[in-house]
Amino acid sequence: MSEPENETSRPDAVEQARTRAEKMFRALPQEIHDLGRLFEDAGHELALVGGPVRDAILGRSSSDLDFTTSARPDDTEAILKRWGGTIWDMGRDFGTLGAQKAGVQVEITTYRSETYDPLSRKPEVSYGDTIDGDLSRRDFTVNAMAVRLPSLEFIDPFGGLEDLAHGLLRTPVRAEQSFSDDPLRMMRAVRFASQLGFEIEDATAAAVTQLAERIDIVSAERVRDELVKLINGAEPRRGLEQMVDLGLAEYVLPELPALRLERDEHHHHKDVYEHTLTVLEQAIDLETDADGPCPRPDFVLRFAALMHDIGKPDTRRFEKGGQVTFRFHEIVGARMTAKRMKQLRFDKDTTKAVTRLVELHLRFHGYADGEWTDSAVRRYVTDAGPVLQHLHRLTRADCTTRNKRKARRLASAYDDLERRIDELAQQEEIDAIRPDLDGRQIMEILDLAPGPVVGEAYKHMLEVRMDEGPLSQEEATERLRAWWRARSVD
């Protein structure tokens, strides 16, 4: 297996990383060193563990300070009271307490081991007696390093420093055992490989493929959270490709590998899988800073880019002459997206936003083919609603053609559409379009009681507003009465 480019791949990388980490550990807040001495004086061990240690070796600071200890939760609580911080119960049943003092926040967990019953989604937790035993249950060697406090002794029983130096992701124990104990670690493998730019060690990768279906035993919420972290990472494409290649996506996001359609012999359609991953990358490039409408990382935009064409496999048709069509794939894809996000327990607002983007991602192409009326532009904005800025970016990202002339034409057309939207917004406050008559006025004019007919009238007046723009009170009243007369005749 080739080693990835990495600043720590030089011969002296391990020692350089160790030296860099030692400096960062010595620079820990004084409150942490004091906490270490309190645990030592009470006859207990305390060690910084996991991600903070890994990040320090990589030369990165970490706001998360996770510790492991030989003390049981009650003893930990007593020591934290002497430390003087605010204490909260983060999960006493799992041996975890949290505390904060002078702006320094810590999470402390008793040495433990946990396994999954083959038929259960819940881990069985038991306390351990040694730090090596605790580290052995960690997901990967690069997360199975610790620094004992207050001595700052570096603990690395599984060669995590060496793996970190060579950009390798490997489990502390046999991968089959590790993934069987907690199948979510397979998702974490592709996420960390993507996040850190590491290679998954061959035996570890093989175990993912072998045990991929066991991910079904994990709760949908835990899988969802790991998927969100992957997609919101710096290089989600890499992690998603590994999910597909290792067979994990078949159980987590089966719509993604399904996009690897066989190309027709005349190449009348794009490679949908590659196109989708490219759209994702291009959408990420269009995210904004924190003050913009789509601050990075924007999960709604990214997931919509990933799901926008999932309806194509179910709608592919081979027409006469070898032409391939995917009619209404955006409608089918929106339904599929809603179903998948419901299964993964996404909240309703996120699901609604992503699904709406998938449904609307082709709407613009009618604009590029011919001039839209102001009414059509209003409908575009109204249909997009709160995801209009996301739709702008998804539509632009969806252009992956290698035909530069076509790409320039599409970009120019969308520039023009955005210009018209801005102009209409200034004229009419388009993002809050309402009929010229509200429900109360409709009832007064037509002498109606509240009921479905008022809703019909309101909808008609909204259509009039869309088609013709703002009307005077007199004009709007006449249009309403004309509609009512026609309805009465019918």
TrEMBL record:
Residues 268-429 form the HD/PDEase domain. GO terms for biological process: RNA repair; tRNA processing. NCBIfam families: HDIG, tRNA_CCA_actino. Pfam families: HD (PF01966), PolyA_pol (PF01743), PolyA_pol_RNAbd (PF12627). CDD domains: HDc, NT_ClassII-CCAase. It comes from Helcobacillus massiliensis. Keywords: ATP-binding, Magnesium, Metal-binding, Nucleotide-binding, Nucleotidyltransferase, RNA repair, RNA-binding, Transferase, tRNA processing. InterPro entries: HD/PDEase_dom (IPR003607), HD_domain (IPR006674), HDIG_dom (IPR006675), NT_sf (IPR043519), PolA_pol_head_dom (IPR002646), PolyA_RNA-bd (IPR032828), tRNA_adenylyltransferase (IPR014065), tRNA_CCA-adding_enzyme (IPR050124). Its cofactor is Mg(2+). It comes from the Bacteria. Its EC number is 2.7.7.19. This is Poly(A) polymerase. The keyword tRNA processing applies.
